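queue> pop job 88
queue> type: inverse folding (structure -> sequence)
queue> payload:
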């Protein structure tokens, strides 16, 4: 008889959620995690610590630069970086130990160690105190992802760091080069820029955040520039040399001009790769695609019966909420249910200031697919609540089908864009139209009125502009 009904490998948002859902459905579940703490990338070195630092650094700017306009005098504002980091660590500890509590509550066996497959029904777990085999009827691989490394830019997590090192710098670097204009680099760049670093972002493409709506990306870059970040688009870093006084970085522009610049710290943020090494997947013959992600079908089954995979280790956007949805749906499939995930409606948010949030199609994608669409836009400058909170930057943009008025996408740049997108996500999930949003009563004064007005502007009937 198998030791467990289900063994989940990895306790990130995909894995721990799958384990809890399995236990809720009456399965005997174990979750193997190689790190000492639960919660995976998201809770330990990703979403949560980065948002804690973003919040602290935003408060630093609010108090040091904007208190005056409210008639509040503060004198010189000092930064205690150690304390700021302690707050972040405390939040991480609270949340990761919370997962341990949830495991106990749901009677999930937590096994600490590195898992690898022995055969289709057995894994070996290697830990400090030895090795042990466990068998199960079903396995879910939820081993997540890690930062992509490039040989010519060797990471030491001190002078050349990944996001993990950038979340734990002990001093504010005078200068920071962020390699890669994606959301993780821009969030971490924002944190250190607010705390006093001169931040430069180098991006090989001719734009930042390449998957985002182009108009929003332009506005976003304009805003970050105003905050002091510098951008080198169409530039590639070809090599780095670490010295006592900083890192010499050799870059090449798209027209082959070479420049060398010196930075105190370099952040490597060029993307993430699935964690498939070390699992001994060869032993069971699990297929990977060309990007080394685990290939799955629409029910999260790998090519081997009884072995499933979810989250960052499978294709699709590398986002915590996508991993969580897959964790639940995968276990429900194993349980014989018929869950569904709508991959066209997965929101994505950048937690900078202003925030950037999007769902559904961009204008570029609609043009490419030759879908006729209407655009509704509304600026926060014309929104009463935004004025009262001095957050008038940005706008809401809604895209709807020309014929049916069905919502096709929405893109928001603004102070609380990440919260505002939820209404549009919900409406899209219910197959709603721009008229649906336009006819819903939105509380006044709130920034959600800008969403309503953007929807109204699709038919040229926005009131406040
Ligand atoms: P992970 O969270 O990576 O968890 C996988 C776990 O498996 C890890 O704990 C790992 O130790 C364990 N593991 C790996 N191999 C083995 C093995 N052989 N045996 C045992 N255990 C193993 N996403 C968002 O949605 N919003 C955000 O704001 C956001 N911010 C981010 C900021 C940063 C700096 C980073 C790096 C990422 C961010 N992400 C964000 C992405 C998010 O963290 C990931 O998409 C999410 O954690 C993926 O969940 P997962 O469960 O698939 O994998």
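queue> result:
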């Amino acid at each position: 008889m198998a030791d467990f009904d289900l063994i989940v490998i990895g306790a990130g948002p995909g894995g721990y959620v799958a384990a809890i859902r399995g236990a809720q459905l009456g399965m005997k579940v174990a979750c193997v995690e190689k790190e000492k703490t639960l919660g995976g990338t998201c809770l330990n070195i990703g979403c949560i610590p980065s948002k804690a630092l973003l919040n602290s650094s935003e408060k630093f700017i609010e108090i040091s630069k904007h208190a005056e306009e409210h008639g509040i005098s503060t004198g010189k504002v000092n930064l205690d970086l150690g304390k700021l980091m302690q707050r972040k660590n405390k939040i991480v500890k609270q949340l990761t130990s919370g997962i341990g509590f949830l495991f106990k509550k749901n009677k999930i066996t937590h096994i600490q160690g590195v898992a690898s497959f022995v055969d289709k029904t057995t894994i070996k777990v290697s830990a400090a105190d030895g090795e042990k085999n466990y068998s199960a009827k079903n396995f879910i691989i939820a081993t997540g992802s890690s930062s992509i490394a490039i040989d010519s830019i060797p990471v030491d997590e001190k002078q050349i760091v990944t996001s993990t090192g950038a979340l734990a710098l002990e001093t504010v670097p005078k200068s920071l080069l962020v390699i890669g204009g994606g959301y993780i680099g821009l969030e971490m760049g924002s944190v250190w820029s607010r705390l006093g670093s001169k931040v430069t972002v180098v991006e090989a493409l001719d734009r930042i955040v390449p998957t985002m709506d182009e108009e929003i990306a332009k506005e976003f870059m304009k805003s970050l520039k105003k905050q002091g970040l510098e951008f080198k688009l169409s530039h590639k870093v070809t090599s780095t040399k670490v010295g006592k006084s900083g890192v010499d970085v050799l870059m090449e522009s798209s027209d082959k001009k070479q420049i060398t610049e010196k930075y105190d710290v370099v952040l490597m943020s060029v993307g993430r790769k699935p964690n498939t090494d070390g699992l001994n997947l060869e032993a069971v013959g699990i297929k990977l695609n060309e990007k080394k992600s685990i290939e799955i079908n629409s029910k999260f089954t790998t090519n081997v019966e009884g072995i499933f995979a979810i989250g960052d280790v499978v294709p699709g956007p590398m986002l915590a909420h996508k991993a969580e949805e897959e964790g639940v749906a995968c276990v429900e499939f194993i349980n014989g249910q018929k869950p569904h995930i709508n991959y066209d409606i997965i929101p994505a948010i950048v937690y900078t200031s202003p925030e950037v949030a999007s769902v559904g199609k961009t204008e570029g994608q609609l043009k490419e697919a030759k879908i006729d669409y209407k655009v509704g836009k509304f600026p926060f400058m014309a929104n009463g609540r935004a004025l009262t909170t001095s957050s008038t930057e940005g706008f809401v943009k809604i895209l709807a089908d020309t014929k049916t008025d069905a919502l096709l996408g929405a893109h928001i740049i603004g102070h609380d864009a990440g919260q505002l997108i939820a209404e549009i996500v919900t409406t899209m999930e219910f197959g709603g139209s721009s008229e649906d949003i336009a006819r819903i009563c939105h509380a006044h004064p709130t920034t959600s009125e800008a969403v309503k007005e953007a929807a109204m502007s699709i038919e040229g009937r926005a009131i406040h502009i």
